[in-house]
Amino acid sequence: METAAPSAVIVAIDGPSGTGKSSTSKAVAAKLGLRYLDTGAQYRAITWWMITNGVDTDDPHAIAVAAGKPGIVSGTDPAAPTITVDGLDASGPIRTQEVTSKVSAVSAVPEVRTLITELQRSIAASAQGGIVVEGRDIGTTVLPDADLKIFLTASPEARAARRSGELRGKEATDLAATKEALIKRDAADSGRKTSPLAKAGDAVEVDTTELTLDQVIECVVTLVEEKRAGRK
Ligand SMILES: Nc1ncnc2c1ncn2[C@@H]1O[C@H](COP(=O)(O)OP(=O)(O)O)[C@@H](O)[C@H]1O
Ligand SMILES: Nc1ccn([C@@H]2O[C@H](COP(=O)(O)OP(=O)(O)O)[C@@H](O)[C@H]2O)c(=O)n1
Fold this sequence. Notes:
This protein has 232 residues and is an alpha/beta fold.
């Protein structure tokens, strides 16, 4: 006899910028009836708060002192994820190039990471039916006991092309500048002392360079279903 309801599953999806983490995670969560958490949005939200409140983002001490002040709330419906800071919708302002250029410095501050990591763990713990959590350190640090860990990669060229396609029309950008900014952010995120961007030893690596988004989604859905079925 087959068992009935699938058990709650926690999926960690990590990787550098433009590998498809957000698009894949949202789609997988929606298909499988799981919640969805964009942890990058939380680091962007705290960075936006620092900028709008005049905190010098080049001063780790000032960032550490202010880290506990903003109230960040993430909505985890994959069809309509939300992020608010002190009750204000931050989904637009957190995507500006100014925030993108400063987020690595803010997210490298240990006090910021401790607070945001606690928030992420409590969100994951309260997601009764399971959740897909995407970021940089989910499999290594935030949820080391996740049922399934995926590490997405893609060539810098493919990632820059995807990002600049997204930015076109919003803010002036060109491919070379996008690629340079992306490589710089990867280096900062991989090189920081506290929970750097890294593949967990037990993560499944998926190179998305030559795959369509649908193929990546299908691949991850299959891996989750295999986990749920207890076949792996
Ligand atoms: N496999 C893929 N092939 C082509 N475009 C993709 C693929 N995966 C994602 N994209 C596109 O690339 C952009 C960045 O994807 P996103 O999911 O935001 O990446 P990340 O969260 O890793 O930064 C989006 O516009 C998305 O639609
Ligand atoms: N788990 C995470 C997620 C994001 N971040 C930081 O937040 C930044 C923005 O993350 P993001 O996922 O929104 O970035 P994109 O890849 O979508 O551009 C990253 O460059 C990291 O500095 C982190 O440190 N740890």
